[in-house]
């Protein structure tokens, strides 16, 4: 469609401008920006016909996108970048982090594994010593016990390795097939790694040289929880400041069904953008914190397993002096597995912190100062304007009738809108006021609306159709609200679905007779197959002639030439 072609051409122009500014911007993010901002009531192209847009409108829109991107204080762009970080942040998933770290780790270990497996069957004493040293490095690296360059750690690993495999066993090891060597190496590293972990567990362990993943996790959890708490507290504080200021600048009377304000709503929208940004920040941090809490629970479970296997090994060693390896070694292997799981959880916490830092960096500290300055400016303007403006709810809902949107109302069931007063958003063009009660106004669609007061909800129920129509236009024509309520994907999908690819006027048609393609072309079946199309035409005419000569008599093979054939018996002709 022309509209889609217009947005594609705008995306190319935006990319060109970014290249001129030496900015490396993801092409997919540019498409995301263009399609979403084109629908925005303030910055978009809703006032123009996208089928035939003017050159000035397109140039102004391109400039708006570029200026917003380079401006760190632009709230809409900050919201968009936060949403994009959360969409692209695949490391939020624990299983993905496990898989990625494991693949990277195995790739790095392949060189060392190949070096260990290369030793011939006829190894000299020097070569066996080198093999023994490389095994130590492999065990330390495989289970992240510390730095492979630490000679003290290597010495501790050598002692544990000596207790499992002796010189004669090492000579037998090189006599194995390569795939048997690799399997044995992995079992050996798990056993020796568990021994090193057990020997250095507790307060008597060598913490200067041997790493303790348990202590690392405790420190990581402490720092992560403090960082999340500080960021979320700051976001909640700024949300409250913005909402309190907006509550002072407007007055909603549910009895008279009127909205009273002095500062124009266009100015209040500036403050609302700051509120939306801090709400967006809080929701992103909440999502990350939820995944973090799930990982914390898994850490607690795994830590209990760790303590359990340590106690089991203690009990086993305290009862005997000489212990069969088959009795104790499986516990060390299990201890290594638990240690590896704890390492994976630590990696996930690290990745979650990286995402948190990316999100926090998008909301700069200067934005807080700018928010407070905007509040002071609007409060001063409120005092200067003596005569307030009074509008009815109906007038405010009629004011958005001219806006056009094809956003699907049913997608609101996926949006978390119950935190804000839906009626206040509808009559103020999207101001985010806190909700106290929730209602489900639609019996056939599971959408929970928020309202400041039950009487607000009553008004929405009585005037359901105009309320829903106005609410839909307000939300879907505001990029900040679409991002906050996670409706951006639904809007962009709707836009991209409008693209209809026209089929070409001429195409090359290649066909083959079904009999030739599907039939068995073995020599026994070649009787019904021909490569000459005219043979099929002649066969068709022949069958048509036979069809014309067919009679309509009620005659079957059984009753041919006979009457009441089902009741008669005929003796077969006897051949002599």
UniProtKB/TrEMBL annotation:
GO biological process, one term: cell projection organization
Transmembrane segments: none
Superkingdom in the source lineage: Eukaryota
GO cellular component: axoneme; ciliary basal body
Annotated localization: Cytoplasm, Cytoskeleton, Cilium axoneme
Keywords: Cell projection, Cilium, Cilium biogenesis/degradation, Cytoplasm, Cytoskeleton
UniProt record similarity statement: Belongs to the CFAP206 family.
Role played: Essential for sperm motility and is involved in the regulation of the beating frequency of motile cilia on the epithelial cells of the respiratory tract. Required for the establishment of radial spokes in sperm flagella.
Name of this chain's protein: Cilia- and flagella-associated protein 206
Organism whose genome encodes this protein: Drosophila simulans (Fruit fly)
